[in-house]
Design brief:
By secondary structure, the protein is mostly helical. The chain has one domain. 51% of the residues lie in helices and 2% in strands. The protein is built from ten helices and two strands. It has helices at residues 49-61, 84-98, 101-105, 113-120, 125-141, 149-174, 182-209, 213-221, 223-227, 233-236; strands spanning 4-5, 239-240. Strands 1-2 form a two-stranded antiparallel ribbon. Helix 2 packs parallel to helix 7 (182-209) and helix 6 packs antiparallel against helix 7. The longest helix is centred in the C-terminal third of the chain and has 28 residues, at 182-209.
Amino acid sequence: MLRSIAVHLLLPALALAAGCGQDTSPPSKATERPQFVLQVQPVSNPLTTAEVTAFLEIVQRLPGGQPPEPTLPPVPELSGETPPRDRLAAWRGHIRRQLDPEQIAQSWKHGSRVHQVLSEQGVEPVAFASLMSRISATWVSASLTATDLAKEARSAENRIELAIRQIEEIDRRSRTLREIPPHWATRRDATWASVQELVSLVEFLRLMQSVPNASREEIQARRPALAKLLPSVDESNPFELRDERRIVPTGFEEPQ
């Protein structure tokens, strides 16, 4: 059984749920600020000691001394008439945008305290967002070392396909009726909710698969300092134990 994640807990908000705190930090003085050289990099690039050190030092200067919490992109508005596979593609794109450093950086509007501090440190917001995502992904992945991530991702994709076929079948049969039975609509909505959760799970698992062991070793070496900023996976309870058989409704009953 795998611990599945809810949509709103997908990384990077997952490990950085501590929030940005109150805007109480005094402005940094130009003579005191270090300059950090950070670049946008994928999670698959190993973290370095210099990068983790930069992250810790920059966060100390941010409001509340905590990593800034990203604002999630708006959920795509799709008509109920949108074909199921188009809805699936739109939802998968929405989940992936949540992990995009450009999207995360847009949360920190120009003129905000976070944007100001990053500018004072000579750091581009998108570069810091990239580093923050890499660190948060690595932090969470340490709790999943015993899980066969590839196998679980394939299993989830299979369940997504099953669920989409069920929705398509409901839609096909509905077009032959003047009035759709209420329990058909209920089943369709429940199945679509399962698809959303499963897509979130797949994207999460793929992100975890991309974390290199070298990054885990680097994070482990700095765990005491990072633990003050990033919540314990168990304490933050981002996962929900669930019987996988309940994730996707099975069967389709004819109306009585």
